[in-house]
Amino acid sequence: MSSAFHPLARARRAGAGDGDEGLCAATEEEAVRLHRAQARIGRHIVWSEVSVTVTQGEFAAILGPNGSGKTTLLQVLLGELALAHGSASVLGMPPGAPKSEIGYLPQRRHFDPGSRIRGIDLVRLGLDGARWGLPLRRAGAEQVDEALDLVGAAGYARRPIGRLSGGEQQRLLIAQALVSRPRLLLLDEPLDSLDLPNQTAVAALLARICRQQQVTVLLVAHDVNPLLPYLDRVVYFGAGRALAGPPRQVITAEALSRLYGAPIEVLRTADGRLVVVGLPEAPAQHSDRHAHG
Question: DSSP secondary structure string, 132-162?
Answer without folding.
Answer: GTPPP----HHHHHHHHHHHT-GGGTTSBGG
